[in-house]
Amino acid sequence: MTSRTYNPRIKWADEVQQYLEETLGEEQVASISTALCTPPCCTCLRVNTLKATPQEVLEAVTFQLKGSWNSSLPYIHTHLPAVILPGVGPLAVDYSEIGGKEVVVSRKCGEAVLRGAPVYIPGVLACSPGVEKGDLVAVAMVLERPGSDWCGITRGTIIGSEAWQRAGPPNCTGLYIGVGRSCVGRTEMFRLEQGLAITMHSPVFRVPSAQGLEGKVMFQNLPSLVAAAALAPRPGSRVLDMCAAPGGKTTMIAQLMGDKGEVVALDRSHAKVQEIQSLAQELGITIIKAYKMDATKAVLKQASPHNQVIVTAAPAERDHEDQPSVNGHEATAGLEGGLEGGPDSDEKLGGLGHARKEGSEKILKRRKRKEAASIARGASIPQRGDMENVTSCSSPPGFPPCSFDHVLVDAPCSALGLRPRLLQTASLPYLKQCAVYQRRILDAAVQLLKPGGTLVFSTCTFNPGENESNVRYVLDTYADMHLEQQWPVLGGPGMTEEDRLRAAAAAIRKCDKEMEASIQARSPQPTDAPAMDDSAGNINKTLQQQQQQQQHKSVGESTVMVATRDSGWLSSSEAKLVQRFDPRGDTIGFFVAKFRKKEGLL
Ligand SMILES: C[S@@+](CC[C@H](N)C(=O)[O-])C[C@H]1O[C@@H](n2cnc3c(N)ncnc32)[C@H](O)[C@@H]1O
């Protein structure tokens, strides 16, 4: 095998592709679809300023990289408590000298490798015969088959074997992610259940690691820090983080408050609430109170004294695990998005006991992944060991209106902006469902915010239906809410109503052109024979009628209009107040809006 280029591109569902093209333009969608398959170049290491200074962290990571890193060096972010680690890639990898030995890994495993992780044993699906410990192997990843959770090969398959042939070998073209050194032989790779399988020797993307800084730093995507900073929580204030797990932004907020005041953190998943507590403990933060609660039901209703915490129907859970699941970015999985909490909620599992059991299994799995993440960064396994001390606070029934100085809604979302992602399975109705669900959380957030207080709404998607449309919804629904300037400003402006109308008009024009072309292709050719009747004219009339009908249909079916039918986007002055992070830049796709509630209107 010779050199191979890493060049995948996301394949969207047709209707989503159409919606995105109509919304953002064809070229943008093409470049976004390629960018999403790569990690952001820079990795952000948030410094826990309660335990270390950015300078101390910078010195520690720079010292560790000495001799092993010949690219750009880490630096301190100008505005945020973070050290930025510039990575490199995609690099050309030479696969010619490894004797044709290969390992095929799952997509999730591959995505983690692209962010700097090694390959762990559970991620290996297939392996060439005769791979021994210490061998160099080409690492390729395989995607799930369309409409399925399965990639077509069972873990343990031998590459080239009959089973491999029968399965129809997966198409890994463009999905070779580097050369690694095997830590175990083929038999162990499939006999063992955990442990390191391969360390990456020449990965397609090279990311610097940071070791021995547990409790002092946390890998977190930069826009997440921006969202927390935009909230501008004052020390001593009372803050609500409505969708908080695993606690990346919650802990950043507490840190910005100097660990003084109170941060109430909600999540609908019991297991995840424990993650928030565990992270707070690891970072030495004391002001966080984490509760299992459905954010849409968080407003205490006077009429129901025994207000039960009932999990409301959320859009079906999507797989949106963030890169951190293996290499520790943002500390853990599921971080930036997705409508988690539906299927793993107690009610849907048929009872609290079951959910708890499921929850602890999940916690164990996540803890293992975090440990793996630490190992990936070269750190020692975190010896928390005292999870027994991390008990879930019994949840209050809700909170009275106007209880909080600051509210963060880091909403569960379609997570279209996460990188690297090699597969997107979102449908158009799902995108719509996400937006509607977010509105229900925003409704509660507005009620819980004190007059004069600030509300930050963030998502990790570039879908305007979930971003600008929902900002429009808040502004149009609540007269006392207005947009406010954020700090720091690192993203671009939001999309305007003009953008939306332009996109819809372009979509209609495109549809018309296609229609014209198809009519022309079907028009009767001129003939020398004299017309015996008016049939040619009739045909043309029919075609014209068909064309008009189609035009109306295309107006009615413009996906931009369908997906954002019930609210527009923003005026140009409003668009300047929100931040849209373009995933084609050195970032994940992200969106932040900051509102303030006027004083004395309620
Ligand atoms: C985008 S993630 C939050 C990430 C988190 N803010 C951070 O920075 O670490 C969204 C979270 O919302 C939670 N969630 C989904 N629906 C919810 C609801 N109705 N109430 C509370 N939490 C919910 C999910 O379990 C998930 O953990």
Automatic annotation (TrEMBL):
Keyword annotations from UniProtKB, A to Z: Methyltransferase, RNA-binding, S-adenosyl-L-methionine, Transferase
Superkingdom of origin organism: Eukaryota
GO MF annotations in UniProt: RNA binding; RNA methyltransferase activity
UniProt record, GO biological process: RNA methylation
Chain ranges of the SAM-dependent MTase RsmB/NOP-type domain: 151-598
Region (Disordered): 316-369
Stretches with biased composition (Basic and acidic residues): 345-363
SUPFAM superfamilies membership: PUA domain-like, S-adenosyl-L-methionine-dependent methyltransferases
UniProt binding sites for S-adenosyl-L-methionine: 243-249, 267, 294, 410
Catalytic residues as annotated in Swiss-Prot or TrEMBL: 460
Family: Belongs to the class I-like SAM-binding methyltransferase superfamily. RsmB/NOP family.
Protein name as it appears in the record: SAM-dependent MTase RsmB/NOP-type domain-containing protein
Source organism: Chlamydomonas eustigma
